[in-house]
Predict the structure.
Amino acid sequence: MELFSGFIVKAILTLIVTYVFWQLWKFAIKYKEWRKITSQMTVIGPIHPFWGSLHLFKDIGEFMTIIQDIVSKERSKVICYWFMFFFPEFNVVHPDSAKILMKSSEPKANGIGGAYSMMKSWLGDGLLISSGKKWERNRRLITPAFHFGILKPYVSIYNSSTDKFLNNLREFAATSKPVDIFPLVSLETLDTILRCAFSYEGKIQTEGLKHPYVAAVSQLTHLLADRWLQPWFYWDSLYYMTTKGREYRKLCQYVHDFSEGVIRERQQTFLTDGPPSNRHLDFLDILLTAKDDAGTGLSFEDIRAEVDTFLFEGHDTTASAISWAIYHLGKHQEEQAIVYSELSEVLNNNKQVSWENLQTMPKLTAFIKESMRMIAPIPGIQRQLTSPMTIDNVTIPAGLVVDMGIYMLHHHPDVWPEHDVFKPERFLLEDITERHPYSFLPFAAGSRNCIGQNFAMDEIKVVLARLINRYKVFLVPDHKYETHPELVTRSKYGIKITVEERK
């Protein structure tokens, strides 16, 4: 019996060793293929035998600076970097290469090297992360929530939330005291998304400069950006053993409790009063009542994932866009004066911005787009290849991750002459006819473009139009303004401004 048992143990060990060697052999073959492919393109180097390219930068900001320097010197369309020696990743930085990636139906990157896999514990398997049949079904069910007929009544809420935001600036106007605008804008965008999408009325903008939800999302994005550059923490079980991992889980639980509270409250209303019939349907109504062709609705987990996703994207990315636009107002006083002149004529002494006004602000719209070109609210996105893809005459194998560097795309010198110069006229009608359609992608493009981009643009226009119409905006002398890219583009030292009431 002991002899037989020993034989079984040896057989099992032999199988394990054989399997490990077989996997190593397969990896060695792939690795050799990857090295051959990457030798044909620009690679961030020198490559360390273990750390790959990771030893060359400590955060996403430094990573983007390195790529921008390479693009400026070599005019590259796609750039490779290595996450340790394990695998290469690719960054498309030119409209020609971005077009190939965006026109494909490749899913978001959920494998090794993909940031989205690390976001699942926070945002679930919602539209941002899901793929395949599930993504197609949910996108189809949710799309009606963004029809212009749904969006149009939101303008009154944009104005109401902006009233609170502008009133919060009064004390700073009266004292000429500098204020970091990002926290105040984040409160405004959170207030707006909760009221528009969830009919949630809370004292969001009256609880000081930072609501707990805003603070939680800010820290979650910071932790995710930090984790992305540490591939050994891609495995949740290992990451959650660390101090940062435990903090991440705690913050995820808080935002889940927040979103579940909003959902449960609406479900209770449905039980008490029935589905809405006499009021405007909001995003949450549509989530709760949507059904596919088989009559099946979204599960509670699906609804929570979409609520978490829309809360994050609807407030944090929009706050970044608005805050950096305010920075550019302060930096470019002549452009601020041009936009103010247009708004004075369009609004004609009306304090509120109407739905019709939104269609008649070409100079403000151009200003906003140029601001998002200069500083993209979302610095990049990722796709994971399910089949080989040829980009710039190089065929990238299936299974690898390809990033689209939105910031670099918006600053490619072959596409944007004087790319570091702020010129809103680039986006006036006469200037855009010759431009590559994939040269400006703040909301991505293709089938997986941002479903809420019209919602975001309308809100941005209202907030900025009302701000410019009421206040002059100035930067603070000697303050250091520096971008800090994470999931969204923040400011390393804050976006400090002063404001002055217009006479």
Observations:
- Residues 65 and 497 are 26 Å apart (CA to CA).
- The radius of gyration is 25 Å.
- The chain has a mean pLDDT of 90.
- DSSP finds 19 helices and twelve strands in the chain.
